[in-house]
Amino acid sequence: MKDEKGILFILSGPSGVGKGTVRKALFERDPDLAYSISVTTRQAREGEQNGVDYFFKTKDEVKKMIEQGEFIEYAEYVGNYYGTPKAYVEQTLEEGRDVFLEIEVQGALQVKENFPEGVFIFLFPPSLEELKNRIISRGTETEDLVRNRLLEAKKEIEMMDAYDYVVVNDDVHNAVDRIESIVVSEHCKRERIASQYKKALGSVEL
């Protein structure tokens, strides 16, 4: 059933939960998945590359993109903009490839309005204490920023009801196993493939 359109998967959760690490491990296992790179105005962290991890833009550039309606979603988060380019996502889904968005919770809720057929996965920390330790261990955040991120994380966890699935990131390999199971499950859903099978049955002579 190669006519099947790709599925948009949204991987989201509080800052510091390990979204990037899990997404990279998932893509190492399944290189056929397509990753939609986000645009951001924050500074690149050590080892991050423009056009690979993010498209790094200035605030003026992003404001112009917002005005021109070039995002599926965008959000201002801890003083920086993040956004998902629209054209790439739509084209890739039409080609029959699954697209993964790795975005903040605010952005995920916007995508839910624009793409309600998307599959929303909330990556959950084993505990808030563990989340705090992960943010601190980055070594890139000031004490005030750590506190702000934790306050934001508490608010974001309260929005979990908007998601289809919750995956606890207690171990990266376990988290990837669970996400792979979700992908397979979604492709087997009756409503996604019923029309294709009915079309095939209609062409069969009895």
Poorly predicted regions: none
What helical percentage do the residues reach?
A: 40-55%
Based on CA inertia axes, which overall geometry fits?
globular
Taking all Cα atoms into account, the compactness measure Rg is: 18 Å
Alpha plus pi helix count: 8
Catalytic activity: GMP + ATP = GDP + ADP
InterPro entries: GK/Ca_channel_bsu, Guanylate_kin-like_dom, Guanylate_kinase, Guanylate_kinase_CS, P-loop_NTPase
Subcellular location: Cytoplasm
GO cellular component, one term: cytosol
What do these coordinates show?
The protein has 206 residues and is an alpha/beta fold. It has a domain at 8-36 and 97-202: Rossmann fold (3-Layer(aba) Sandwich). It has helices at residues 19-29, 59-67, 86-94, 105-114, 128-138, 143-157, 172-187, 190-202, and strands at 8-12, 34-36, 38-40, 54-56, 71-77, 80-85, 99-103, 119-124, 165-168. The strands form two sheets. A five-stranded parallel sheet has the order 2-7-1-8-9, with helices on both faces.
